[in-house]
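Quarterly update from the structural biology core.
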Amino acid sequence: MGSVGLVLAGGVSVQFGGALAVTLMPRAGALGIVTLRLLVAAVVLLLVCRPRLRGHSRADWGTVIVFGIAMAAMNGLFYQAVARIPMGPAVTLEVLGPLALSVFASRRAVNLVWAALALAGVALLGGGDFSGLDPAGAAFALGAGAMWAAYIVFSARTGRRFPQADGLALAMAVGAVLFLPLGIAESGARLVDPVTLALGGAVALLSSVLPYTLELLALRRLPASTFAVLMSLEPALAAMAGFLVLDQALTAPETAAIALVVAASMGAVRTQVRGGGGKP
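Predicted structure, tokenized:
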């Protein structure tokens, strides 16, 4: 599978995992879900990858720690957002972070056009007006977007410094350790309920282990600017997951928004291929 296919597969996985997480919130709370997601994902990745702890420079460890912090913050802020506002608008606001990254990181003027087109789709998907949303929920979603941009940058750096998915496993462990006290404080004994653990494990596999591994591999061959524009597909994928899992129907403006973000993503990929900057 090429780098673009890896990104798309990761996007489908993370959004369906997010929809499953919404159904789990009454059982474990937003912070509890993030804790289970990070903890289970960290255990799985550490067992599979068995990363070496020795032989890494101070810069390597600094990169992986920042990556872990960004990952934990991105997840924590996003689940605080979807606890307050619907999943579609939350992802719509969150994706503004990668879009901003695509504008600042791009070295080709045409990428600004694709970013603008994707931004128009994001705005349309949000109904053109976010004033009716809970302010705290919207703020959490925007904060998650900022952390998503940081995640993209440090995922790429980690992938270059560590072999395979070793850096991801270590970063996931960092995020899990940082978030564990918050999850215990909010959810307590509910975290060890067998059904909650099983569902939390499914969320971890769908929303963390599989997509983050695919994205880390993709970022080794795909420039951050093109990757960030591809992230504009996330609201469309979230709408699809919401429809199939949460029974949230698409409206005509949402359908038009999906067409815009798909067009922007296809344009970004075609620009990448013609520019010879990576293999799709």
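DSSP finds eleven helices and no strands in the chain.
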